[in-house]
C-alpha cells in the first residue's frame, strides 16, 4: 500500500463545513490495512466529502488529467485536504480521483475534440489550404485513437468510463473513486471489478465510496460503514445495502405493495 494513514489536525473551525460533519469531526487517525478500502454510508453521511479531502491532501489529479485546483466545486475539499495529515509507505503521484460528474464532462469534451479534429482535417483536405495545417489535428486524432481505440464517439458513458479507466491506469497508482458505479450497468460493474483486480497486481491501491452491493463484494476489501459519525468496520453480509438488495430481489412485491 502507498497511503498508510490519514489523520485530522486540530481545527478551530469544527462548527463550519466540512469540519462540522460528524465523520470528519470524529476522524482522528484512520489506518489503511488493505489495498482496497471501501466506505459505505447513507446519503449525507460525508463519505464523498471525506474522499474529496483525501484526494486533495494526496494531490491527486482528476480522471481527465486536470489538477483539483481547476475545479471550483472542490474548494471545500481543498480546505479539508489542508487539515489532513497523510503518512505514506512510498508516496505516489500516479493514479487519479474519480467523480461521475467530472468524468461525464471529460468524456463529452474528448468526443467534441475528436469531432472538431475530424471536421477540420476534412475541411483542409478539400480546400486550397496548405495540407500541413492538418497535421496538429491528425496528431490529436492519433493520440485519441492510441489511448481509447476506434469509435470513442459511439461509446456509451459506461463503455467510455471503462475504456478511459484502463487507459489511465498506471503501475503503483492510488485510485480514489467516488461512486464509480454511477455510469455502469451491473454487468459493467463486474468488468470494473476485473480491472481493479488487474491493477492490484500492478501495486495499485483503491479507496472507494459506493452504494453498490456489487462493488462492495470486491474480494479481500476492507469495508467501513459510516455509522453514528464513525467509520465502523463491517463484514459484507452485515451491510444494510446488501441485506435490503438481497431481500428485495428475492421478493420485490413484499416491498412494493407498501409504497
Automatic annotation (TrEMBL):
Task: Answer yes or no on keyword Membrane.
Answer: yes
Cite the SMART domains for this sequence: AAA
Q: How does it sit in the membrane?
A: Peripheral membrane protein
Q: Does the keyword Protease apply?
A: no
Q: What is its main location?
A: membrane
Q: Which residues form the ABC transporter domain?
A: 8-253
- What Gene3D superfamilies would the database entry show? P-loop containing nucleotide triphosphate hydrolases
- Give the subcellular location: Cell membrane
Q: Which UniProt keywords apply?
A: ATP-binding, Cell membrane, Ion transport, Iron, Iron transport, Membrane, Nucleotide-binding, Transport
Entry protein name:
ATPase
Per the UniProt entry, what species is this protein from, by scientific name?
Shouchella xiaoxiensis
Q: Where is the organism placed in the taxonomic lineage, from the top? A: Bacteria, Bacillati, Bacillota, Bacilli, Bacillales
